Amino acid sequence: MQVVGVDVPLASFRALIPSREDYRGLTKRLPTELVAGLTVGIVALPLALGFGVASGVGAAAGLVTAVVAGLVAAVFGGSHLQVSGPTGAMTVVLLPVVAHYGVDKVPLLAILAGLLVVVMAVTGMGRAVDIIPWPVVEGFTFGIGIIIALQQIPLALDTPKGESESTLVSSWQTLLATDWATATATLAVVVGVVVVHLLLQRFAKALPASLVAIVLATLAAELLGLPVLRIGELPASLPAPALPEWSWQLVTQLTPPAIAVAALAALESLLSARVADGFVADVPRTNPDRELFGQGLANVASGLFGGLPATGAIARTAVNARVGGRTRVAAVTHALVLVVVIYALGPVVSLIPLSALAGVLIMTAARMINLAVAHRIWRTTRSDRMTFVVTLATTVVLDLITAVLLGVAMAAILSLRHMASTSAVRREHLPVSTPSGLVDFPTHVMHDTVAVYRIDGALFYGDARRFVDTVSGVGDVKGVIVRAHRTRVLDASGSEALREAGEALGYRGIPMVVQGLTEPQLRIAEAVGAIEPGRHAAELPEAIDLMCELLGNPDHAVVTGETTQLFSYGSFTQTNVHRRVYGRRLVGQLDSLPGYKLQLVAVPSDQTEVLGITTQPVAVKGGDDDIVAGKRYTVNESELAAVDAVNERLFRREWVELTSGESAWVFVAR
């Protein structure tokens, strides 16, 4: 699909909707799935109530969100393990929205955000989360933990929240306004909940600590008659779906916060799903676009029922995986358990102290503030440490979306700086080994009068100035050849650098020839006028011939077949095979072939005696994470011809770049 002339890849609609494959193996697992859903529902109850209160909308809205969004996301989402509902990160975003626009605008906000997330799914943006670096994710999570803990101060003290929209400032205002003489009862409830959590985590991990702590806190408050605020009356049933009051003016006003909520819903859900994929190995991986589609529909549905924006919840998802949930039925069951709570246990739930919910959320925040992970990041690179700290600080001081955007931008800048430092422009001296053989200038004079530069890595905006200064500043020469056969990245700035260097040399009467650009790179270079017509050559001998012509020299490049490099793997690294094929034992260097993987093929019967095997691994194209280990050998032309004769029926020969940066011939599958 084209939008304003730009191709936008659309996700397949069939891949976004539920199918029978979602429930494969359910008949054998149904009892386990139901038990898992019951357990998750018990864990989710206090969290749904707590996050509803913490967001400023109320416990009832939190419970409705957990039911409606949890059910819709389970059926339509792209993860088999994900459990969705109100989360701490979303409360951080919602509090200033509620303060500015009012509680009654939250359902419409959820619908708008949900529609935006659906658009993100349809346009294939699900895999965007893969570009977010680990330090950004952890800094974001660490900062959310701090914010959630600070947000519980008003509930923990039964004191109205401070007027400031800044969580830091409003927490301080709450502390100043607290009547400490009457706050002891609520603090006692908070401390009791925390102590119960710690004891159960230490001695009875199988019990749902949050639920047990809230039950005990509620019983204590009732029996002792503690003067603490309670949740209050809850609706006796789910509200009927209805479109919230809206107008185009209101939609326009809510669009900026809706974008922030949609971005957070997408980010947190995809991060949660990615983490969940690592919990178990026997469950299909998350489809990120479908996960966004499901989360978008879940937010729309939540808004229609008067609920909050929702996301995938990592804590509830982790419980689901730990207790045996492997299909969507567990997440569906969790939502149905909460429906039972609404219809049967509303009067009991209304007695829960708000300070007990504060204690539960403080423990949730404490689990997010992972000092061990922070320590691991601190032991890595300086740039990763800076990214982590900046993301954390921005999350606490500013807002979540700014934190993620700033963290990603900072990580990108530091990564580009690293890429620029590992890229290089080197002066190369002939002769050099190429696929054509050993290549040299035709005369000794040309070694002194023609400079050869090789670009390794990338020529992009982060490295363009260094390239121009190096090449255009060359001393007393008559010509320059720029070898770009190892250039993996060439952008418009890099092409402009080629043009500037060629222009600067041209002012001095020095011609420049470029060799080895790929077809896409050559198109970019020609688009910006970086290369004069006829000044590009595919191979080095051709580039030397072109330079000889420009200098008025009738000679041609000298190409000899003395030696070349060959990368071998499998049986071709064995000494006995060397002796049969080459007539001698080869001594090689350890190396590897990126982007390929091995598969076994049968060896033709007339070659089994030569190779001493009946099957042979052959390299085939793989993914970015695949790699083939082997050795790099130096062979002469006759030896290369000998192995060609052995391999011609199973393999074809390609000239590739290895992990070491060296280039060599390799035999891959036909």
Please describe what this structure looks like.
- By secondary structure, the chain is of the alpha+beta class.
- It has three domains: 24-370, no CATH class; 424-556, 2-Layer Sandwich (Transcription Regulator spoIIAA); 564-669, Roll (Hypothetical upf0131 protein ytfp), CATH 3.10.490.
- It is 54% helix and 15% strand.
- It is built from 27 helices and 19 strands.
- The strands form six sheets. It has a five-stranded mixed sheet. A five-stranded mixed sheet has the order 14-17-13-19-18.
- A hairpin with a 2-residue loop joins strand 1 (2-3) and strand 2.
- The longest helix has 30 residues, at 248-277.
- It is elongated.
- Mean pLDDT is 83; it is low at 1-8.
Give the biggest sheet: 5 strands, mixed
What's the β-strand tally?
A: 19
Number of helices: 27
From the N-terminal CA to the C-terminal CA, the straight-line distance is: 35 Å
The average pLDDT value, as a whole number, equals 83
Strand order, sheet with most strands: 5-8-9-10-11
Instruction: Give unreliable regions as ranges.
Output: 1-8
The coarse silhouette is elongated
Structural class, by secondary structure, is alpha+beta
Residues in helices, as a percent range: 40-55%
Please tell me the total number of domains.
3
**Percentage of residues in DSSP E strands:** 5-15%
Cα radius of gyration in angstroms: 33 Å
